[in-house]
Design goal:
Blueprint: E1 2-7, E2 13-17, H1 22-31, E3 39-42, H2 48-60, E4 63-67, E5 70-74, E6 82-83, H3 85-88, H4 98-105, E7 107-111, H5 124-132, E8 136-140, E9 143-147, E10 155-157, H6 166-176, E11 182-186, H7 192-203, E12 207-209, E13 215-219, E14 228-230, H8 235-248, E15 251-255, H9 263-272, E16 274-279, E17 282-287, E18 295-298, H10 309-317, E19 322-327, H11 336-342, E20 346-350, E21 353-357, E22 366-368, H12 372-384, E23 388-392, H13 395-400, H14 404-410, E24 414-419
Parallel strand pairs: 2-15, 3-14, 6-7, 10-11, 18-19, 22-23
Antiparallel strand pairs: 1-23, 1-24, 3-5, 4-5, 7-9, 8-9, 11-13, 12-13, 15-17, 16-17, 19-21, 20-21
Helix pairs in contact: 1-2, 1-7, 4-6, 5-6, 6-7, 8-10, 8-12, 10-12
Length: 421
Amino acid sequence: MEKLIVQGQAKLKGRVTVSGSKNATLPILAASLLTDDLCVLEGVPQLRDVTTMIRILRNLGLKVHQEGDRVTLSPNGYAGVEAPYRLVSTMRASFCVLGPLTAKKRQARVSLPGGCVIGPRPVDLHLKGLKALGAQIKVEGGYVLSKAKELRGTTIYLGGAFGSSVLGTANVLMGAVLARGRTLIENAACEPELADLAEVLIKMGAKIQGHGTPLIAVEGVRRLHGFTHRVIPDRIEAGTYLVAAGITGSEIEVQGARAEHLGAVIDKLDQAGVGVHPAGGGIRVKPRRRLSPVDATTLPFPGFPTDMQAQLMALLCVTPGISVITEKIYPDRFMHVAELGRMGAQIKLEGATAIVCGVKRLSGAPVMASDLRASAALLLAGLAARGASEVGRIYHLDRGYERMDEKLVKLGAEIRREKME
């Protein structure tokens, strides 16, 4: 296990390039299960989660070759239908093999998922959607067992207690593309990663309309073919670098960042006094002299993303005044609060709301990451703090950010990676 030693009060300068989207890559890799033809995905980030998904696909019988950011998949009549606990338990997104396996093989045995400890994230919408398409579903011994003689199109409402589900929509969409007849998915996720998956399915021969909106229409087809596709840039990685510039008062350019995917993030940063401007092929950040408090509520896209909540909180910890963050997606996603408090942050939790009273500066301290985005927030806080910080359990960071510490070092940060004792 490794940790990062971060020397605080860093100034950043230069350009950083955003890697391909983790949250788009994983379901697109799973989509290769829908065909027997060769599939090629480019722009793939080299991450632990991607490695886990590739291991799952190989376990199912696919031939997978990865070279740099290019992954080639050869399904070629694969025979496996089980995604085992030892793999799925480490990453929630691996559960999205359930839909394509049910559609293509008419059966699946997929472990209930794991991933970051950020509160309950049930899979009821996934199962509801596949049941509506005609699959017989039961949960037994920690596994979801799915069987279907035939999937048939229908109208499915995918609204949950906290809004739409990105992975749930992905699973149902991948089931619907090979179902007989027409499927309407109501309250579908609108996230860019889901829209990117839909674009891949269309390249494979699927008939899909309305992706990127809450109503997706699918006309089932009998067979899908292979694809070649370049995944979209990672909007959460891009947003994290925008915050890195804001929290350190630095001017940088984030190459590959798409403003249309970051509207709510850009809006909150602009309110906070972090100047964000489109630049050729990316976004330039030029902070103003003084930061200002903001209120933010996490919501499904195009609202403020829950995956940026912890990073925004790190910025608000050093922003004068009182800011309020309300978590409407995962109400328990505040495990980073206690660790930020070790660095001198003043944060009070009231249910699903965090009240942040900005301090003049944070102090370096040993802290422990609890999940992927919390690890990024603690790293950002370390960049702004006085003195050195130690961020432990950075395997969380490596799950979702491609060489983030190396990219920040190239911008001028002082960070080194060490083995934990």
